[in-house]
Amino acid sequence: MTLLAGAILLGVVPELIDDERAYAAASPCPASTGGAEDCLREVTATVVRTVIRDEAEYDEFSVRLRGLGEASGDVDMGAPGPLLKDLRPGDAVTVTLWQDYVVAVAKDGRSQETADTPWVSRSS
Predict the structure, then answer these.
(1) From CA 100, how far away is CA 19, in angstroms rounded?
(2) Cα Rg of the chain (Å, integer)
């Protein structure tokens, strides 16, 4: 069983590292392209609801958004802050997309990365 888990991990890790490197190298999409897959594009969405549940055996930190394409639906925020705890239904937010991931949600100059954001630091 351990051997199988190790083999699966070895198959997944290189792909995750490739995603982290591609995300770190991503730059904002040129306005004229409408958004290429490997660039960062921003779209507007509206908060429908938030869920902040931090219990001993279960936690959930999510926001449901209404927007176009990938900017619509439930987004796992990973933690209640710095932004999720202050969002309310009806709030307009800016959603940052990379490939098919929602990587950040922002409002009024404050931003929070989501659970889908690759781990690598954007500054590295």
Answers:
(1) 12
(2) 16
Can you read off the two tokens belonging to residue 106?
A: 């922002």
Tell me the C-alpha distance between 112 and 81, whole Å.
7
- Say if residues 75 and 63 touch (Cβ distance below 8 Å): yes
Residue 98 to residue 63: CA distance in whole angstroms: 18
HSE-CB for 59 with a 13 A CA cutoff: 9
Q: Which of 12-21, 46-55, 114-123 has the highest mean pLDDT?
A: 46-55
The C-alpha atoms of residue 17 and residue 98 are separated, in whole angstroms, by 16
| H helix and E strand count, the chain | 1, 6
φ/ψ of residue 13, rounded to 5: -60, -50
Look up the pTM and report it: 0.76
Can you read off the two tokens belonging to residue 55? 């219990």
